[in-house]
Automatic annotation (TrEMBL):
UniProt xrefs under CDD domains: PA2301
Protein name in the entry: Prolyl-tRNA synthetase
Source organism: Curtobacterium oceanosedimentum
Domain YbaK/aminoacyl-tRNA synthetase-associated: 42-164
One of the Pfam families matching this protein, by short name: tRNA_edit
């Protein structure tokens, strides 16, 4: 089993995406001090593969999902953070939060181009300044969550509560729903 060589996130900026490293530098020191990062095998970036390979509990995984909503010709983007054991409620909750008629997962090419991050490594740290970041309230109860680092070759570790201190974050009750053992989570399971 591979091991995780964690270090304080500010020390680890060499293996984080540029927007992530830039955002970390701007965080208050009390927030920054709670964030660690570690390089990983990029082929193991997807939540389930990472958990299995590194022995990290699946319930500690959090997915950052880029969504796009439309109202007429206006396209509104946001990021949503949910536990890996849950499913984002795009059709009801996200649609209402964005005040749009239609909402869906953003196309991969758009998500990558707009964030400056790799697909499968998108993280709530370092997103475009005008994007809202919606975090499911259950994420805050996790003592530690692992999210992408902007690149598939690294992960970021932080207390769930630290997510509430990030820029543009709104904590939302009911942003995600439970996923039963026989339910297919679709793209949510493959996006970090």
């Amino acid at each position: 089993m591979p091991t995780l060589d964690r270090s304080p996130a500010l020390v680890a900026t060499g293996f984080l995406a540029i927007p992530v490293a830039q955002a970390l530098v701007a965080l208050p020191s009390d927030v920054l001090s709670t964030i660690q990062a570690a390089p990983i095998d990029p082929d193991l970036a997807d939540t389930a593969a990472f958990s299995e390979a590194y022995g990290y509990p699946l319930e500690g995984g959090a997915n950052c999902i880029v969504v796009a909503g439309k109202r007429g010709d206006d396209v509104r983007y946001a990021a949503c953070v949910v536990l890996a054991s849950t499913k984002l409620d795009v059709n009801r909750v996200v649609k209402k939060l964005l005040d749009v008629r239609k909402a869906s997962f953003a196309p991969m090419d758009d998500a990558v181009a707009l964030t400056g991050m790799e697909y499968g490594g998108i993280t709530p740290i370092g997103l475009p300044a005008d994007w809202p970041v919606f975090v499911d309230a259950r994420v805050l109860d996790a003592p530690e969550v692992v999210v992408g680092a902007g690149l598939r070759g690294a992960k970021v570790f932080l207390p769930g509560r630290t997510l509430a201190a990030l820029p543009n974050v709104t904590v939302v009750e009911g942003l995600a729903t439970d996923v039963g053992p026989a339910t297919d989570v679709g793209p949510v399971a493959d996006v970090d």
